[in-house]
Fold histidine kinase.
Amino acid sequence: VAAYIVNLKGESSEGHRLILTLHDLTESRRMQQMRVDFVANASHELRTPLAILIGALETLMGPARNDLEAHQRFFTMMQAQSLRMSQLIDDLLSLSQIEINEHSRPSDRVDLGQVLQGVINLLTAKSSELGKSIALQMPEDKVFVTGDFDQLTQIFTNLIDNALKYSREESEIRVEIAVAAREARATVIDEGEGIPEEHLARLTERFYRVDSDRSRKLGGTGLGLAIVKHIVSRHRGHLEIDSVVGKGSKFSVRLPLSGS
Ligand code: ADP
């Protein structure tokens, strides 16, 4: 916002004063554009599985009405598309819930090792199905951060789930906790395909994907890292992403230690 006072020299010696106030609309236009894009993207993401569901129902009620073998295939497909929509709606709701609370800083004392161990326990079955393993390394002393247990769980569920999705077959995912300079650092390292540098800055944008088809096939909604970014910011933390194409990626979350 800029304000200018302009003296208009009229006939009277005092003159007239005109105050011009100029508002910089760039930022608010950008925010508005982002909101419009978000609604358009979300609608598109929901419409695709819905179109498949409608098509499948029409086939089941029409040409494939008496084809029992086709019924099974269509039901499996309809189940997958319904789950996709349900996951997307869950992620959209999580995102809006996080945004509502974004300005209130969480204040619980949370054992970071317990969070990570819990996430790893939940993902172990999926990991072994994929022939992968998850190794956790942490200091002997417990590491406590100030935060919200469920939201911290969500951060690391998203990061470790991505590491499982985008890493090579039979590879290992390493999860490390370290403490330095009044901060805790939790890092998820995969031996995966890596991410080309030009994508790194945009990865945490909603619906941004390096390869959309691949992400969808793997059950991704394109919202996981946007959710991570918002939770990390609510915790006054930092997210760092390092990646080398063909070698793998490293996602580090720095969080303030409890009591610091
Ligand atoms: P998605 O649901 O598509 O996985 P995310 O927001 O979690 O959405 O991630 C955005 C994109 O970042 C992914 O589509 C993928 O292209 C890329 N990505 C995320 N994590 C990794 C990883 N560990 N290795 C390689 N690419 C990744």
